[in-house]
Amino acid sequence: HHGHYIRLFSHVEKEIEMGLEQVYLVTEIVVGIAFVISIIFLALQVRQNSTFLRYSMSRDRRSNENWLFETLSTDDNFRAFHSRIMTDYENFNDDEKYRADSLAMRRLTSNLNELLAYQNGLITEDEWRSLKWVLEFTATRPNIQKVYKRIKDQYPKEVQRYWERLPSVSSKNVTNPVNN
Questions:
Q1: DSSP-assigned states of every residue in 30-71
Q2: What is the pLDDT of residues 58-107, one digit of tens each?
Q3: Which of 92, 144, 162, 163 meets the CB 3.0–4.6 Å disulfide criterion with 96?
Q4: How many beta carbons lie within 10 A of that of residue 64, not counting itself?
Q5: Quick one: 78 exposed, middle or buried, by C-beta within 10 A (0-12, 13-18, 19+)?
Q6: Are 138 and 111 in contact (CB under 8 A)?
């Protein structure tokens, strides 16, 4: 009887071992499937984040533009001040320069951040056409050029090279950007 129990125990042990191997193989398959699903999920999130970034940057630029044009349209004092930036910036008092430079900082950082995103492939060609026009116009403002000198080191050399190749004086009517 003792030999019979050993053979039976050996047989049961082999079945348990085979069962454990099957559980191990099934576990490996489940882990592999879970890994593939997580990669797909990650890819979808990256795509969604890229889309959101493009939309967000475009929305910020358009929001800044809308604010500027609405304020120019509805506030006579601001319109006169904004127009004087092009013609009389060098003669501004400290308070006027501070106001003009604050406007420049708001606009320029948004534009340069979007330029950087474009250079990193995160902005569509359609958005680039719009941004390019904005950059060309913005570069002609004397307060923008002054602020750029203060913040340019915050941006990669490629952004600096692009910006510095833009003409800082325009032959267009820069005091009235709507007609440009």
A1: HHHHHHHHHHHHHHHHHHHHHHHHHHHHHHHHHHHHHHHHHH
A2: 777 778 888 888 999 999 999 999 999 989 999 999 999 999 999 999 88
A3: 92
A4: 16
A5: middle
A6: yes
